[in-house]
Specification:
heterodimer; A: 287 residues; mainly alpha; ABC transporter involved in vitamin B12 uptake, BtuC; two-stranded antiparallel ribbon; 2 strands; globular; B: 270 residues; alpha/beta; six-stranded mixed β-sheet; four-stranded antiparallel β-sheet; 11 helices; 10 strands
Chain lengths: 287, 270
């Protein structure tokens, strides 16, 4: 059972990690927590589900469109909710982010209605037994896809010109400008990337739980926030680690304590981290 | 990388051999500040600064703490807006340009306190220095050239810049700025926080740059080192320029000696 729960935890944890990357990258470059990250996750899921429901769109195109829509939403949020508040007291963009989150949830409720939507296409997934552990190929596929996206992100940040420029802006904005780096453009790029990853997580979880609904981003958003703090906010490998650790802890907590406490586990971890090691597992704006 | 030297050599030849090739002091200024005012919030730090730098010159701006030296450089770079006055580079007004635009014109700053990107590798720091450039092949050649001149850049290529010593970081910061292909290189307190032996090394790099014809605008509290290297100097006090002249003259000026070179104090308590 332990290995079984471990794998379940890694599956949901990989979604937390993808959302946590959005939190941590945006925090890294702007020093603010975008609490609308969960709604970006929801937006990705809705766009993919609605496109697939038409029956005319290939799964991979719908997946890419969901990520694209999430990226676009992130870009709009940056322009509308954060850029005008640059230089204001740090609480102001935080309130703006919470406002954006409530607005987007209500808008989705109004437009799509409160009911759960099942994922429009059925995948034929089998269960593989590995050393006594039953693993569905769906879980395997989600985990592998999430790891693939994270690997792409890490490669992008470490080895491309724009990736290094984003890190430079996070480390020292004025000096980055002196190199000729356009900070506004890098902030926008960070929102695009972070939001696309959250959108991908939303689609994966819409398949995993077979449910898409306006408030679906609320809990994963808060849990991923905890994961980002756990890993060390601003730190990219930290967000990945934090997401996976949190997913596993939650899954083991549900199995060994009581499944009713599943959601509490993440927040107990958040409180413990803030009390005992507020800088998180990996500190600093690492990449 | 330092285009000044060939340009200087090629001038004045051909047409009239009688006229000597222009020396730096006779060429039109590349950077000009005319009564520039700037500051932070309600505070006006620069109360009307006028200065100029000619191609090939090494100019220093000396003065005590809080005189406005760093503010002058931050204003030239576009990090602080010009409130009044005119800032010109090659006859083009810079007043409203962003720092990104200004660096692409060839005005490059080595900031105070080095400010290397600490968690990025030495090579990544150098690459970011050339961020604004589009001549990729030349960028690679410049990188190779710098690695020949400073073997440390190759030896420590993959090491995070934050793990270098203070002097090595200063050298990296200067090389990062050279990767931007400066036409005018500005340095803010390059000797700050460094041991005297390391300061001599850093000034060795600067005099090498001077010999290659690089135009330098150097800000220093270490007036002695700066005036030794520079052709001309300006002395700043509380947001104004109070004195200017050839570096040698300033070195001999009793007021400068007393205030900035620590000479002529009577040890009254003896």
């Amino acid at each position: 059972m332990f290995l079984q729960q471990l794998f379940n935890g890694l599956t949901t944890g990989s979604a937390y990690a993808l959302i946590a990357l959005g939190y941590t990258m945006i925090y890294g470059i702007l020093g603010l927590i975008n609490f609308a990250q969960g709604e970006i996750y929801m937006c990705g899921a809705f766009v993919a589900v609605l496109l697939l429901a038409t029956g005319k769109v290939n799964f991979f195109i719908a997946f890419a469109a969901g990520m694209g829509a999430a990226a676009l939403l992130g870009l709009i949020l940056e322009r509308v909710a954060f850029r005008p508040l640059r230089g204001a007291h740090p609480l102001v963009p935080l309130i703006s982010a919470i406002g954006a989150s409530i607005f987007l949830q209500s808008l989705a409720l109004l437009v799509f209605g409160p009911s759960d939507r099942p994922f429009p296409i059925q995948f034929t997934f089998s269960t593989v037994t590995l050393g006594g552990v039953a693993i569905s190929t769906l879980q395997g596929a989600i985990f592998a896809a999430a790891l693939g996206l994270m690997a792409l992100l890490v490669l992008f940040v470490r080895f491309t010109r724009y990736g290094k420029a984003i890190v430079a802006c996070a480390l020292d904005r004025d000096t980055a400008r002196l190199m000729g780096i356009n900070v506004d453009r890098m902030v926008a790029l960070t929102f695009i990337i972070g939001s696309a990853l959250s959108g991908a997580a939303g689609i994966m979880m819409a398949i995993y739980y077979n449910a898409t609904y306006p408030r679906m981003g609320l809990l994963p958003g808060l849990k991923a926030f905890s994961a980002a703090i756990l890993g060390g906010v601003g730190n990219i490998p930290g967000a990945i680690l934090g997401g996976l650790v949190l997913g596993v802890a939650e899954s083991l907590g549900a199995a060994y304590i009581a499944s009713g406490y599943k959601d509490a586990v993440a927040f107990v971890i958040l409180i413990l981290v803030l009390l005992l090691r507020p800088q998180g597992i990996l500190k600093g704006r690492g990449h | 990388m330092e285009g000044g030297s060939e340009e200087r050599g090629s001038r004045g030849t051909g047409v009239s051999p009688v006229i000597p090739p222009p020396t730096p002091s006779s060429r039109p200024p590349m950077l000009t500040l005319k009564s520039v005012q700037a500051g932070y919030g309600p505070l006006t730090v620069l109360k009307g600064i006028s200065l100029h730098v000619r191609p090939g010159e090494v100019v220093t701006l000396i003065g005590g703490n809080g005189a406005g030296k760093s503010t002058t450089l931050r204003t030239i770079c576009g990090l602080l807006p010009v409130r009044r006055g005119v800032l010109e580079f090659d006859g083009q007004e810079l007043n409203r340009l962003s720092p990104e635009r200004i660096v692409s014109l060839g005005l490059v700053l080595v900031p105070e306190g080095r400010r290397v990107f600490s968690s990025l590798s030495v090579t990544a720091n150098l690459e970011l220095g050339s961020y604004h450039r589009t001549d990729k092949a030349q960028v690679r050649r410049d990188l190779e050239d710098l690695r020949e001149r400073f073997p440390l850049l190759r030896e420590r290529a993959a090491q995070p810049a934050g793990t270098l010593s203070g002097g090595e970081q200063q050298m990296l910061a200067i090389c990062r700025a050279l990767m931007a292909k400066p036409r005018l290189l500005m340095l803010d307190e390059p000797s700050m926080g460094l041991a005297p032996r390391i300061v001599r090394q850093v000034y060795g790099i600067l005099s090498d740059l001077k010999a290659r014809g690089t135009t330098l605008l150097l800000i220093e509290q270490n007036a002695r080192a700066a005036l030794k290297l520079a052709d001309r100097g300006y002395v700043m006090e509380t947001g104004r320029i109070i004195l200017d002249g050839a570096a040698a003259e300033l070195r001999d000026d009793p007021e400068v000696q007393r205030a900035y070179l620590g000479k002529g104090y009577r040890e009254v308590w003896e």
